[in-house]
Amino acid sequence: MVEYEHTPIGVDGRRVVVVGGTSGIGQAIALGFAAEGADVVATSRSEAAVEETATAIEERGADTARVTCDVTDRATLDGVREAAVDAMGGVDVVVASQGAISRQSVADVDEDEWDRVTDVALDGVRRVTQAMVPAMADGGAIVNVSSLAARLSMANLPAYSAAKGGVEAFTRASAKELAPEIRVNAVAPGFVITPQNADTYAVGTEKRTRIDERTPLGRVADREEIVGAAIFLASGAASYVTGEVLTVDGGFADSAF
Ligand SMILES: NC(=O)c1ccc[n+]([C@@H]2O[C@H](COP(=O)([O-])OP(=O)(O)OC[C@H]3O[C@@H](n4cnc5c(N)ncnc54)[C@H](O)[C@@H]3O)[C@@H](O)[C@H]2O)c1
């Protein structure tokens, strides 16, 4: 008799909150969880985007709630927690995918721009964690969305890069403190086509050509290709994974020539 106790690896029935979940990568993650049988609250500042995404979640048979938030305002995140608990009975999984970017150089980046980016991208992740943990029970999982910019030098992105480096350090710090009840990990996407950068990465542009040539898989990612990594880190398949950063970049970061 071979002894083997199988832990289900799906996310069926899990109760998920995706902050920054009504556009781009976060919206794909929200719809991906719903398609896999989870209930999902997807939130951002935009009422219209929340409505559109909530309808798409319901179309996949999942429960949801319609609630906006601004990650620079902790009270609004407490409101998301309360709405999620009312709608789903609790929170098992939290994904922080909100984004802010600045293209000022190291020499030029000013106080306001630095603060704007780090307030959303770094302090926002800390506020999401602090607001959601009180609703999370044993077995919960947090997935923070980082970026290759946390570890690769990229020109004219100092505030964004510093914020994402902070997200990865905060991910490890909170993984240590919230263990063993809650696992905390990050996904670091490479170059992903989303509405905001569709022009920058359009086929035929110099940037797109350079990325495609340097990427072992030969192309940028569709936003759907980040979903599986987030679901994996939130699922029973990752029950012994915490404090990790999972890079999803088609091999870009680790390739030489
Ligand atoms: N697109 C890429 O190539 C790429 C690569 C690496 C990492 N990322 C990261 O992935 C995440 C999602 O990026 P995206 O490309 O899907 O961008 P996006 O702009 O499509 O999505 C960002 C989401 O965050 C929300 N948001 C912004 N400010 C907010 C605030 N103050 N409060 C609440 N919500 C707020 C937006 O409304 C939107 O729903 C970001 O963290 C980004 O840094 C993106």
UniProtKB/TrEMBL annotation:
Residues in the signal sequence: none
Single Gene Ontology MF annotation: oxidoreductase activity, acting on the CH-OH group of donors, NAD or NADP as acceptor
GO terms (BP aspect): fatty acid elongation
Alphabetized CDD domains for the sequence: SDR_c (cd05233)
Domain Ketoreductase, first and last residues per copy: 14-190
Matches recorded under Gene3D superfamilies: NAD(P)-binding Rossmann-like Domain
Source organism superkingdom: Archaea
Entry-linked SMART domains: PKS_KR
InterPro entries: KR_dom, NAD(P)-bd_dom_sf, SDR_fam
Family under the similarity heading: Belongs to the short-chain dehydrogenases/reductases (SDR) family.
Protein name: SDR family oxidoreductase
Biological source species: Halorarum halophilum
